[in-house]
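Give me structure tokens for this 420-residue protein.
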Amino acid sequence: MRYEYRFPELPELKDTSIWVENRGKRLRTKVEGKCPLWLRVIRRWYFDMFSFTKPIVQSPDGNFYSLYLPPIPSPAHARMFSSTISSIYFKRPLPLAVTIGVTTDCQYLCAHCSAAGRSESASILSLDELKRVVRECLDLGVSNITFTGGEPLLRSDLEECVACVPSELATSQVFTNGLALTINRARSLKEAGLHGVQISLDSPSPEEHDRLRGMTGAFKAVKEGVKNALDAGLYVGVSTYATKRVALDHTLVKIVELCHEWGAHEVSVFDAISTGRLRDQEVELLDAPSRKVLLKDAKDMNRRYRGKLRVVTQTWTNSGHGLSKVIGCLAAHMQFHVTAQGDFAPCDFTPLSIGNVREKSVAEIWRLLLKHPAYCKRSMNCRMQDPDFRKKYIDTIPEGADLPYPIELLESEKRPQSNS
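Here you go.
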């Protein structure tokens, strides 16, 4: 496939285009029009990096590298590349991705649920509201849309949400526990235009996964969900999380081996973060030595399964190594989150609300987020794991408050009261 990448949102590059072509596992590029030297350098570095890492799947729609990226080349990826240039070079941040909650309902009571404590006092977004939110996200430049929950498959009109994401503008995926991912539901989602699913797996041990999920048969549901999604023609990722013990026990190696056996395309490893239900538990979070072990295991697994399965870790994203130097904390830099009740949060792990999409547009709230002192500059490290950030913005949230908590209320509570 060959596609012309243009930059309609960047007036500085109005006379520039880059042709991108996948020739087997490699990507070839050719510049047309006026192209500054810095863009030639970025273009070569960016696309050569993908050629080196190798695609997981080659298809007529472009090479597939990750569920978090549109195929390359493609119209949706051209949008992502343009937004990346805007954010990194021109310092005009445009989001690449959004996670959108579509329900608060779930079949499980997971020990690590990051959505626990979220407000249920307001109604969830209607289908029309969700469609508007998706349109506004696309208008802002988003090229990857993830539907979350709760458990998004419990929403009967999820297919209609998926169908409002044009494939030429963005890819869509669903984060699910897999329990309701029957073959018929997987096929229905695929027909609606879904790109892929991310199925949660907490442990390679069936007994341990079932214990953490609070239900016998939860592990079996993950395995069957992976098979059903693959049979329906969906890309399949498996998501998990890492504590200090998980890293030091090399649990990731066992999970990746299992996922390769099942035929999954990708494994995502999120850091265990003190938020949601984990906020009140005694869990050993990752430290420097355990992160080093996790990074080595992920690197070894990527070498072993290169071109077959990819492992991505939040620890690498925040490590400052290679491409991660331009990534860091994704919140307010590359993505944001909209809860099922419409609250706009920096990410789905951060229990802070910048505004509500029922009151302001997505673009208005994004601009407010970028102006906030905690988010006006890119952070290399995850803010939710930064002690100073937590002391100022998380530990001061009133006990028992509905979440996400309005960030402006925290700031008004800190301001000295007038004596008049």
